[in-house]
Amino acid sequence: MKKAYKEKIIDYLYGEMTKTEKKEFEKEIKNSDVLEHKVEELKNLRFFFNEFKDFEAPDFYLDRAAIYNNISSQDSGFSLRRIPLLGKAAIVLVAFFLVLSVLRTTVVLNDDGFKISFGSSIADAGGEKAAGINNQMIIDEIKKYIDDKDNSQRMHVGKLVDELDKRNDVRRRMELQAIYKDIESLKINTQARFLGTEVTLNGIINYIYKQDNIKTVQNAGGI
Amino acid sequence: MQEILTYNDENLCRSICKGNRYAFEVLIQRWEKPIFNLAYRYLLNREAAEDCTQEIFIKLFNKLQKFNYDSSFKTWLYRVATNTVIDYQRKQLRYREVSTDDFVMEGLRTDSEESVEDKMENINRINAVQSAIKKLPKIQKHVLILKEFSGMTFDEISESTGIPISTVKSRLYTALENLKKEISRQYQGGEI
Question: Complex ipTM above 0.95?
Answer without folding.
Answer: no
